Amino acid sequence: MARVYNFSAGPSMLFEQVLRTAQSELMDYGSSGQSVMEMSHRSSSFEGIIRETEAALRRVLGIPGNYKVGFFQGGASTQFDMVPLNLMTTGQADYIVTGNFSGRAAKEAAKFGKVNLVASSKDQNFTYIPDVDKIAYTPGASYVHICENNTIFGTRYTKLPQVPGVPLVADMSSCILSRPTDVAKYGLLYFGVQKNVAPAGMAVAVVREDLVGKAAETVPSMLNYQTILEADSMYNTPPCWCIYMMGLTLRYIEQEIGGLAEMEKRNNAKAALLYDYLDGQTFFKNPVQKEFRSIMNVTFTSPDADTDKKFCAEAAAAGFVNLKGHRLVGGMRASIYNAMPAEGVARLVQFMEDFAKKNG
Length: 360
Ligand SMILES: *Cc1c(COP(=O)(O)O)cnc(C)c1O
Fold this sequence. Notes:
Elements (H helix, E strand, L loop, with lengths): L4 E2 L9 H9 L19 H18 L5 E6 L2 H13 L4 E6 L2 H10 L4 E7 L23 E4 L1 E2 L4 E2 L11 E4 L16 E5 L10 E6 L16 H6 L9 H18 L2 H20 L17 E4 L4 H13 L2 E2 L10 E4 L6 H18 L1
Parallel strand pairs: 1-12, 3-4, 3-5, 5-8, 8-9
Antiparallel strand pairs: 2-10, 6-7, 9-10, 11-13
Helix pairs in contact: 1-6, 2-6, 3-4, 7-9
The structure holds pyridoxal-5'-phosphate.
């Protein structure tokens, strides 16, 4: 069996041991005689799975007791709607736009109230993050929304907006569990699971209790945090398989890796391999301002679009797949999430060196 190094931005690699555990439990989960894919979400087996997945997330992320955890369908994109539908109690909210997904979130929110675009990095094609201490936030805004790691442009926040009395809401789809997070700095954080946690099909929201229960009567039950959270994510059939797989990933991070501080160390080392190489040569270029470089998504370009194409094709043939950059940016993007082994990055760098020598 030849597994490739998959640099996809999402869905993306899962830890090999997580896949093996899922495989070994596929036909018969815990002597239940069934697969997790088949069992009732009301069964005691599945109740154990969902309870333990939430408990593991609470332990690994260090979620304070006054925060609720919910499992939602509709991906991170549905959270772009749920956030304003539930939290925009003053009729307006502040949005910082630093890329594609934060732009989409702002556009959705504008359907439900006034969106104040308080800062943007569009002027330099999203290659930096605005200084969050110099932004004129809106008095009376219900919340401040950011996208903490910009999957497409390869940037990340190094400081978080902290506005007294105004909760921070963050899309953490492409950076969740990549490093320790101080959950108390957020009113609400959410993430689609397919980048760093589990297969596609679910978003998770971690919501401070006092922000729940403020939605208007007209908000559909399925889009109301209160409905789902009060039912412990069992208001309807939850994404059972995703919850199970998320539990396996969390167990792996907790027991095999040893938690998020160690996870961050490994991620920093992987990112440094790639960025140090990029900084030490001239064939490939990374457009992002150094201090805002993402440790999850690394973008780069070769001298021209034809060479980019050639690079991606030859890389794929050599076992490095999904390196094509997003159509908004072009060039290449290596997504090096938690489950990408350091060896995969080291081998990619070697491949890049060889390619540059031959094509430079
Ligand atoms: C992938 C991604 C999304 C979109 O997630 P879906 O689950 O496909 O809706 C939103 N935000 C960020 C930061 C992402 O990386």
